[in-house]
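Materials and Methods. Structural model of TetR/AcrR family transcriptional regulator. The 213-residue sequence of TetR/AcrR family transcriptional regulator from Streptomyces koyangensis was retrieved and submitted for structure prediction as follows.
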Amino acid sequence: MDPVQHLTSLRRAPVQQRSAERLVRILDACADLLDEVGYEQLTTRAVADRAQVPIGSVYRFFDNKRALADALAHRNLDRYADRIARRVGEVDGTDWRGAVDACLDEYLTMKRTVPGFTLIDFGVPAPPTEGEPHANHQVADRVAALLAAHLGRPLDDALRRAVLVGVEATDSLLHLAFRTDPAGDEALVQETRTLLHAYFAHTFDPPPGGQDG
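The predicted structure was written out as tokens:
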């Protein structure tokens, strides 16, 4: 079962198993419809019909379409964090390039295979509400914590800042790659990988003289 009970956009958390399963169906229906009609044409009625639940079931959990899409984005982020944790766990603790590649490769896999992910990966395609952290900041926080733990580095401001820059750069370049080719232009993907390796070298490579600072 997907971890859905902690989603901040929920009006009410599911208590019973049947209710939790219904919430998963609603989110799955939302993801499928995003690929078919886009965010602007998405409606809560269409989601309810696709999930085969009463419209009241959708409003039991969500105030509106924005809250529903936001919950899907948070679920995507949780899934991404779980998946990169598994991938990075298979990489040697001294191989930061392998760990960075694992984070990039899993994002590409989800972009190409997860329903609705092209339009809503980790954030709704609309201006954030007041006080809401930008999606890239949330991604960067998860990735920074994972890399720090795996590589044995302190999770300090310098590392958080470096990962945030990497996430922002990756976001822009991969938007270009998938705008150029719906499957992701491979040449641009490789340029993204090259950029990340070059940028993170100043953070993860030991300084001259071989002493790790």
